Amino acid sequence: MYFAPVIFKKFLASNMAIVANLAVALVNYLSTFLALYLVDKAGRRVLLVLGGLGMALFTGMGVEGRMERRKGSFYVCAFFGAKR
Questions:
Q1: Crossing angle, helix 4-11 and helix 14-42, to 10 degrees?
Q2: For residues 2 and 25, what is the distance between their CA atoms, to the nearest angstrom?
Q3: How far apart are CA 17 and CA 6, in angstroms?
Q4: Residues of the chain with pLDDT > 70: what percent?
Q5: pTM to 2 decimals?
Q6: What per-residue string of b and e applies to 46-62 under the rule 16 or more CB within 10 Å gives b?
Q7: How far apart are CA 39 and CA 32, in angstroms?
Q8: Distance separating alpha carbons of residues 74 and 68, to the nearest angstrom
Q9: How far is the C-alpha of 75 from the C-alpha of 59, rounded, in Å?
Q10: Alpha helices in the chain (DSSP H)
Q11: d(CA 47, CA 39)
C-alpha cells in the first residue's frame, strides 16, 4: 500500500490515481470483515486447506502453461495439509 499512489500516478492521471488508491483501500477494509466472517463460520483449518489447494491448482496451471512449449516436461505440485 505504501507505493500504490506512485504506481497509480505512473499509469493514470493524478485525480484517477487518488480514486484508484481509495478504491484499493476500500476493498482492503471491506475484505477484512469478509475474512473475519468466513473464519468465524468455516473455521481456520478449512480455509487453510482450501487456500492451499487453490494455490496448488493455480501453480500447476501456471507451470503447465510454461511447460507446454517443451515436449516431455514433467512437473509435480504437492500439497501437504495441516495435521489435527
A1: 130
A2: 11
A3: 8
A4: 71
A5: 0.55
A6: eeeeeeeeeeeeeeeee
A7: 11
A8: 10
A9: 11
A10: 4-11, 14-42, 44-67
A11: 7
Helices 14-42 and 44-67, packing angle to 10 deg: 130
Which residue carries 504437492 as its cell? Answer: 78
pLDDT in tens, 5-22: 788 888 888 788 888 888
Rounded Cα gap, residues 12 and 17, in angstroms: 6
Unique residue bearing C-alpha cell 463460520: 41
In whole angstroms, what is the distance from residue 42 CA to residue 64 CA?
31
For residue 45, what is its C-alpha cell? 483449518
| 52 vs 41: CA distance, rounded Å | 19
Instruction: Write the single-letter amino acid at 55.
Output: M
